[in-house]
Amino acid sequence: MAFLYKADPVRGAQWAARFAQLAPELPFRIWPDVGDPAAIRYLAAWQPDDLAQTLPNLEIVFSVGAGVDQFDLTRVPEHLPVVRMIEPGIVDGMVEYVSEAVLAVHRDLFDYALQQRERIWKPLPVRTAATRRVGLFGLGMLGTAVLERLRLFGFACAGWSRSPREIEGVQCFAGEATLDAFLARTDVLVCLLPLTDATRGLLGKRVFDALPMGASLVHVGRGPQLVTTDLLDALERGQVRNAVLDVTDPEPLPVSHPLWDHPRVRITPHVASATQPDTAVDAVLDNLRRHRAGGPMRGTIDRTRGY
Length: 307
Ligand code: NDP
Ligand code: OXD
Prior knowledge:
alpha/beta; 2 domains; 7-stranded parallel β-sheet; binds NADPH dihydro-nicotinamide-adenine-dinucleotide phosphate; NAD(P)-bd_dom_sf; EC 1.1.1.79; Glyoxylate/hydroxypyruvate reductase A
């Protein structure tokens, strides 16, 4: 019986060290060193491609990321559970990134960066957080944790999800019918949705125009959720004032892409958060224990929903 890892090899070595410490009885292999394919019971991958089809005794496929859209699920045999990453390291990173981005927008740092370039000393009115309405697209593991932190600053917080949610101190909206009401009260829109057929292209003209004039966008979901031409147009019109983009389509963003030069766009290379090897291994081992005990694993995705 063995565990196979197929993702970044540097992190793979860290996974291997943690496995050796906590589960020495389970041989840990780093792809392409598969060894005997029949021995592999568990696979952790960023993109498994066809690998799951070649391992006859595979029982579980883990995603090393929180998202699973990078999997082609049609190439993962139906009977195999697919489990996404739920671990505290990835949550903490996202909370930091989004808090910084929302605070940067809230405290006019885009405007001051532009003023600095022109050597302009011009204070802008300082608004309280309570008067800034933040709205989260996605109230899952990450969206909920981000909102918990933003509430501590005093922002007026809301969130939008597919099914109804209740979160203390957060105005919760659910489903397409509530989308306009959610957007109308949102000064800073943060996207933390999984990429599915329903969310592809969602961040486009229809959404931007339903926001209050001069709203800001923080996009940390997936690149294909954003219609770049619509964002550039909304920025041009002042409908969207600032955009913080951690994900783009494609990635890397081509050097000639107009987003790079836009003075009101800040780009980072898909680093808002990252799975932390030690806590990821702890989460995987916890799920293996649950699986062996016949219980549900944390993060098992619903293939029909796509997340
Ligand atoms: P979860 O699965 O825990 O939560 C997803 C949330 O999105 C849920 O609230 C869900 O609604 C909601 N949702 C899904 N589809 C729709 C829809 N069509 N309409 C409205 N709401 C919808 O995911 P996580 O919070 O763990 O992660 C979210 C995403 O963040 C990941 O899929 C990944 O794409 C991205 N990510 C980005 C990273 C980065 O570095 N940039 C790092 C990690 C993740 P409901 O509650 O009803 O199910
Ligand atoms: C993830 C990511 O989904 O890194 O974990 O984007």
